[in-house]
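Retro notes
What went well: the complex prediction finally ran end to end.
Inputs used:
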Amino acid sequence: MTANPLTLPSRSDSMARQRALGRKIVGVFPGRYPREIFWALDLLPVEIWDPPLEMERTGAHLQPTICSVVRLGLELVVQGRCDELAGFLFPHTCDSLQNLASVIHDLLGSGKPCFFFYPPKAPFGEAARSFYRTELEALIRTLEEHFGTLKPERLEESVSRGKDLYRLLASLYTERAGAGLDASNAGFYRAVRVVEYLHPDESVPLLEKFLEETRAPGEAAGPPVVLSGVLPNPASLLDALDDLGVRVGDDDLLACGRRLPGAPDPAADPLEALTQGFFRSPACSTLNAPLRQRMDELLHRVRRCRARGVIFVGVKFCEPELFALPRLRKALKEQGIPSLVLELEVNQAVSGQIRTRLEAFVELIEQTEADL
Amino acid sequence: MTGAEARGPLSRGAGVRYRLMRDLGAPVLMRGSRFFRKKRVRRAPDPALGPPLACSARLREIMTRHYLLARYAKGALPVAWVTSGAPVELLRAFGFYTVYPENHGALCGAKGMGARLCQVAEQHGYSQDLCSYARIDLAVDLSGQTPVGRLPKPDLLFASNNICQTVAYWYTVLSERLGVPLLLFDTPFNYTDGPRRNDRAYMVRQFEEMIPVLERVSGRSFRPERLQEVLLLAKETAETWGAVLATMKARPSPMTIFDAFVHLAPVVSLRGLPVALDYYRILLRELRQRIEQGQGGVKNERVRLLWDNIAIWPRVRDFATLFAARNMCFVTATYTNAWAETAPYMEGDDPLEAMAETYSRVILNNSLAHRLELMEGLVRDYHVDGIVIHSARSCKPYSVGQYDLKRLLAERLNIPSVVLEADITDERAFSEEQIRTRLEAFFETLEEG
């Protein structure tokens, strides 16, 4: 497998380039938000999921029982590494991130504008749909107060750019599920995660090139698995899977597969397209999707890539993921699909114990494959 | 299907059994329990604490009766399991019998069953890092173990994420396990001041979407005037509870916050029913009498304290005596205050709008700026000398931010405080040694002050 077919721009280089083009950078904490609105205002949203930092100062602000995604996000702020940002966006995702937003905005005084975005948590009825649209409008209004007026044609253009990007990501996922990409697991996630910090003017051509250079129908080898959890981290886990010859065929990760919006109707106006994209996106624990829907979609992912097993890559203390775990595992077991649960800390190297468990799991799924 | 056409989950036989138990069985059992309680040898009262509140016996009866009748409610009345911050008034208007798993979890914790039940859930794959109320509740469903005999299976689950997102995940699991519908009342978090216009519209529309479901499950039609009556009753109950808490401004305070933790049960679980209001009127009379007589919850009150967060239920009695022995009395808490704070919003021409406003504004749906302001106000109004901050492993929205709140309160009010890392019901998260060390240092600071 090709480890890394492309040279990827670093976050700092990309942010410097965008600033030189007159764009301002907004730091975005984890969750769902409409990137297109930012692009249309000449803003670059740069997401803060797993900054590579040592935890030095967070202990003075957060309990050790808070997940490492939240702790690292705060570490970035309290280490003073956000000076070049024009503001922060806090999408509402979970209790800990909700309070992190308030710690930064109300108690620490970051000195930067803070914006908030609340995706509805009960997306069952028309109330949620109309709220989502008004929430988009409210976000536009608050961003306009700081960054100037949003021109309708720019929004239309951005939404169209977003559709290109998501179509491309969907193609990458489809090719991968069909064993049609010659890319390592680590290489794949390094590539698709550029959308967290690159402007689509850069990410779209880069991902097109990645698809072109790695497309190799039927050539990908190794037993496929599905990853489920929050994000594909630590990198050493992906490396370990690569070493063991395991191919990630699909993912149910909040930062990745679960955030791919569904395709909107072609005639929908820009805000309606964003609304439809949100409501047609995959089921997610953080949006309180019914468990039956989560189970069905996970099984669909398993079937789509003919996965031999599912690895739950949980972040320690992540409640949204942990609640659903027993039922999801049971549903998999009923279908004869083995699963493995790993509790991980973001950016921490895979321990010998985890490596041993991974090896045992790979042996198990290889055996299952052989029996079939 | 309209409410009138719907039959709901009810049966005539169950109705007869329920009414017999309510009108005959429960009163007889309550009388018997009173008789035996008089005969029972009581634990010697702690010498540092004031005499127990007389109406505690009445509270015990009310809650025992509530859990007793719950066993007979299934089939007689529509049954709902409800979260503590959910707008239960809407369900009352449809005649639901409501059970509060959080209240039940607290009861299990106070009876020392928390860790054992949590372990049952853990054996079934639920992580030890999940909220212990949720683990206890799942364990009750998995094992049937409960100190109240039996909990009725619900016909409906009703949750609001105004207290945490955890309840939404927890009730989503319950909905799938029990095969019953879940109504989730989604309250956008107030990052700044109160709900915005689009938040209000969203919340009201959710209520409108819930009404047909409630009509179908209960078999009753919606009557706005009935909801208005229930809401007014709930408002008066919350106000009376507020008056009960306000008695603790007196020196000495007529009860301690550990008493208030226990007497909180009716405003949480029976809000919108006459029994809760009647009870608080009795309690208020007794507390006012104690103030007149100069009788305190702690006999020799010298230091007044504020408690932040939910109680450490397994340790309520231990903490009451520990602090009383040092003449320290907890006179207020952000937690108990939560059910009084929003009472002013519970009234309006449109009951759905009033409910949206009220339930959006509960403490945990507001930013930490609101909490800081609230705590500053409580310190001033209740003449507080020190703060005990319970950092509850189970409760992220209550606990994330507490370290900075502590720092800011010290800077602004020059008030000492201590953080106790523990849990609401899981005793395994309680480190005796660590807590003793922290409290000793806190006591020294207070005594020096």
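What we learned: The two ends of chain A are 25 Å apart (CA to CA).
What to try next: split runs per interface for comparison.
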